[in-house]
Design goal:
By secondary structure, the protein is of the alpha+beta class. It is built from one helix and eleven strands; from the N terminus they run αβββββββββββ.
Length: about 150
């Protein structure tokens, strides 16, 4: 009887391990590394206030790696800093980038399909439109006043 219980536990454990799949975004996996200091970098000054954002579409530093379509860094309404890929998850083109519409709403909108995404509290979730998923989110670390965005 003990052997049967042990086998059942082993089979259940293996089944659980086999069912755990890593989530894959529709946005292709590309290198991400951006470092901005909102106290020094002119383009990043808006990041000092909640609702402030920086849409990085072109590398300005040799170390910049901008993901698939660029990086959106957003100072959330909860006073946290978030980062997302600028690529719309419906269009999935490097040239179709979501646009952050204002400091107040905390939304990013795709100019082509009209999908609207919530960036205010870091989710990147789709609020409306045909996009199959939310914006791809990246890791943010604060190091000596600088915001560092990486893929993991």
């Amino acid at each position: 009887m003990t052997n049967i219980r042990l086998k059942i536990i082993l089979y259940c454990g293996l089944a659980l391990l086999a069912s755990c799949e890593e989530y894959k975004s529709v946005i292709p996996d590309t290198a991400v590394y951006v470092e901005r200091n909102p106290l020094v970098d002119a383009d990043a000054l808006q990041l000092n206030v909640a609702g402030g954002f920086d849409e990085i579409k072109k590398a300005t530093k040799q170390t910049d790696r901008l993901g698939y379509a660029g990086i959106l860094i957003y100072h959330g309404l909860d006073d946290e800093i978030y980062a997302f890929d600028l690529a719309c998850t419906k269009e999935v083109k490097r040239t179709v980038r979501v646009v952050t519409d204002s400091l107040v709403t905390g939304q990013a909108v795709c100019p082509v399909c009209g999908s609207v995404f919530n960036v205010a509290y870091g989710s990147g979730n789709r609020l409306s439109g045909d996009a199959p998923e939310g914006l791809r989110r990246y890791r943010v670390r604060m190091v000596v006043g600088s915001i560092i965005v990486t893929k993991d």
